[in-house]
Amino acid sequence: MTGSLRCVSGRSLPHTKNTNMLDPHQEKVLILDFGSQYTQLIARRVRELKVYCEIHPYIMSLESIREFAPQGIILSGGPRSVYDRDAPSVDPDLFTLGVPVLGICYGIQLLNHLLGGEVAPAGAREYGHKTFTISNFDDLFYGLNAEEQVWMSHGDRVEHLAPGFEVIGRSDSCPTGAIRDLSRRLYGVQFHPEVHHTPRGKEILSNFLFRICKLNPLWTMASFIETTTENIRQQVGDGQVICALSGGVDSSVTAVLVHRAIGDRLTCVFVNNGLLRKREAEEVFHLFREHQHLNLVYVDATVDFLCQLEGVIDPEEKRRRIGHEFIRIFAAEAKKLGGVKFLAQGTLYPDVIESVSFKGPSATIKTHHNVGGLPTIMPLKLLEPLRELFKDEVREVGQELGLPDSLVWRHPFPGPGLAIRILGEVTAEKLDILREADAIVSEMMLASEFYRQVWQAFAVLLPIRTVGVMGDERTYEFVVALRIVDSIDAMTADWSRLPHEFLAGIANRIINEVKRVNRVVLDISSKPPSTIEWE
Predict the structure, then answer these.
(1) 4-15+220-408: what CATH class?
(2) Where in the chain are all domains bearing CATH 3.30.300.10?
(3) pLDDT tens-digit map of 447-457
(4) Fewer CB atoms near the end CB (10 Å): N or C, the chain?
(5) Which residues are known catalytic residues?
């Protein structure tokens, strides 16, 4: 596909409305964040149990909590002591709302402290796996064994119980490791049930949700699609919507979901910036035009982007120029359409969470993941149907909507594309080299059992050349680095321990099949301190 091509089709995906389907937001849990590195994991575990939940900073007002109307409240852990100056806290009246509360780590300490108990430094700091002895199996620990393995991470502990509380579990160095006030349905655990290091932690959370809060598992992606489709129709009315379609799972699911709701009043714009993976433009165009029947505007802007990147080495400057050029082209295409009122984009829940620190909300959602700047240039209202979902939930929605596995399980790809996987200046030659190397990585990963196990696997072209010997001749060519990582939501990551034979096969193919490459290296750094992408 060369030049500019406009393809329009008048069909939309069929949909039916199930009037008997319950609203997945009908029952919900509030998670108050006190700065724990595990807060997102709490939300993920609750969602996995098919209960809707939201994370909010601990400064959320009591009035806002009443308006949110949760059926359960979870207080996260945190790095502080309840006796620190300006320690994170909540209004004690939170515990008079009649809503069950579960305090985790810092949460149990705060709960006990605010209700008249005493917290003190533990005799010995507990960190890591611990044997936990349970003394009551009525509710929170229903179905568990008398001794279970848990994950501890604390320096303080509950020293004296607040009035009305009793101990229901302990470890050898924490005699108040789990407490409850049965009459007020207030519970606390000193360990972290949300981490996989606590093997039966999910059962504990399940007991809190279903035995104590009396919730129902309504949060399914089928119910989400049904209610979100109706919400999109109500929000958009008779308006026109435009969507920047990249071919990634987030923008693709957004496009198909919006199309399901409003049909031909959605127009998708796919901008080929010349920084895409091998055959990516053709595959995206074919899938969404021929199979999903979306109104699709295709723009080949390869020359424009390469001109903008000429001579640019600094990675932030690359990102800035790519972002500005995309906005310019997208705005021009939107203007041609006329009458567009809404911009649909694939904002996910981690994007929302990252924009709100546990101390309070920031002004805007981060823009590097989305189409930053467009609502300012054009008076468009944002339509973000996936802003409540984690990545794994988005994939489940994609499967429910009938998208192919090759797209649903596709590894994340950065907005600036291959430009930030080429260290140094981006040229057409370097792009060709990296595309071929990256295509080999993708092909071999897809043909293996590892593709769905890892978060991302890709090649990076380094700005160095090394001596080699190929065909009895001396060479001086480029180096390719392999970056293959395990992660959940890219907040943290570790390098994947794939078999050496498999990695050797990738390296061998790249060196033999990709011209101008004579060396392949493996990146074995974690995030933090490194990032997943190199730039």
Answers:
(1) alpha beta
(2) 421-522
(3) 999 999 999 99
(4) N
(5) 105, 192, 194
